[in-house]
Design a protein that fits this description.
344 residues, binds magnesium ion, Beta Polymerase, domain 2, three-stranded mixed beta sheet, 10 strands, binds 3'-deoxyadenosine-5'-triphosphate, RNA uridylyltransferase, Poly(a)-polymerase, middle domain, globular
């Protein structure tokens, strides 16, 4: 009896040491995070561009409003990323494509350069490069769900700084390993951030804002978006949990490599829990939705952010999750090896 139990203790100590030994790499991961964060000047330039374009467009369409969305507004943007803008306009007479064409004309007349109207894309946009700020930007029309989900992500990021740190490192890994390419069947940056939020909810570091009393209510295209947005009141929410960023990174990859049940489970930040594919009727392929990795959109709940993943890319993704988990478990230099570029 004694012999067995002392062995068990020794075994537990060893695995604990492996697991918590990862903490020593936190400074390395944090300096990678620091190197990716956009500067104050860059943020100011983005704001400046928003104001300048907003003024120009308002002259023609006084009831329109221009919003920043995506990575430059959700606080998960790297330095030098493109600026995503959304024009909200209520014009029953004009189709989206007409609005895009007219918008391109307005910008042209306003002396902006390198304007392209992409009217046949899945999401029609106007692309431009601003000479004054050197920023490239894409403007879409009436994509208000993206404006609302941008705010949700930004609000989550305010609660605990570890979310932003973790998501930057995960995004940097995904870009280095070429698994952040939706047109190749891998996941969007938006999906990776949702995966990070979910992990921190399960560990008690983040609350589930959509399950709390709503202080922010908007209805966009029949989707009722409601959640608690007074996040300055939640600043200490996760403080009892002292896990380091590198330990959370380990947990993230370990979860997606070895713990997630790809047959049954859907991750859902809307509920703060794992829900079943069965409950959502996501158990079989419908059209192009294969549901091989299921990530529920927080507002458009019929939308699986994993829908882009196919039977080839799921293998690639899972191999990358395993590679990352093993590096964090065993590699002597994880903050370097993790980001080694993928070479085909
Ligand atoms: P990068 O830094 O550019 O990689 P990003 O945050 O701009 O990351 P995406 O390019 O993936 O992220 O998407 C831009 C925004 O569009 C983020 C989100 O508000 C919205 N969005 C993206 N994908 C979806 C989706 N599948 N469903 C709903 N909204 C989405
Ligand atoms: Mg983007």
């Amino acid at each position: 009896g004694h012999h067995v139990s002392s062995q068990r203790v020794r075994f537990q100590r060893r695995t604990r040491a492996c697991r918590y030994g990862i903490d020593q790499f936190t400074p390395n991961f944090l300096s990678i995070f620091d190197s990716l964060v956009p500067s104050r000047e860059e943020i100011a330039k983005q704001e400046q561009l928003l104001i300048a374009l907003g003024r120009l467009i308002n002259k023609e369409w006084p009831n329109s409003k221009l919003y920043l969305y995506g990575s430059c507004a959700n606080s998960f943007g790297f330095s030098n990323s493109d600026v995503d803008l959304c024009l909200a306009i209520d014009d029953k007479e004009m189709s989206k494509v007409d609005i895009i064409l007219k918008l391109a004309e307005i910008l042209q007349a306003g002396n902006l350069q390198n304007i392209q109207a992409l009217t046949r894309a899945r999401v029609p946009i106007v692309k431009l490069m601003d000479q004054d700020t050197g920023l490239s930007c894409d403007i879409c029309v009436n994509n208000l769900l993206a404006v609302v989900n941008t705010k949700l992500l930004r609000d989550y990021a305010q609660i605990d700084r570890r979310l932003r740190q973790l998501a930057f490192i995960v995004k940097h890994w995904a870009k280095s390993r070429r698994v952040n390419e939706t047109y190749q069947g891998t996941l969007s940056s938006y999906a990776y951030v949702i995966m990070c939020i979910h992990l921190l909810q399960l560990r008690g570091i983040l609350p589930c804002l959509q399950e709390m009393d709503a202080t922010c209510n908007v209805t966009v295209e029949d989707n009722h978006c409601a959640y608690f947005d007074q996040v300055d009141k939640l600043k200490n929410y996760g403080a009892h949990n002292k896990e380091s960023v590198s330990s959370l990174l380990w947990a993230f990859f370990h979860y997606w490599a070895y713990q997630h049940d790809y047959m049954q489970d859907v991750i859902s930040i809307r509920t703060g829990r794992i829900i079943s594919k069965h409950m959502k009727d996501w158990t079989r392929r419908v059209g192009n939705d294969r549901h091989l990795i299921c990530i529920e959109d927080p507002f458009e709940t019929s939308h699986d952010l994993g829908r882009v993943v196919d039977k080839f890319s799921i293998k690639i993704l899972r191999e990358e999750f395993e590679r990352a988990a093993n590096i964090l478990q065993y590699d002597a230099n994880p903050s370097v090896t993790l980001f080694e570029p993928y070479v085909p």
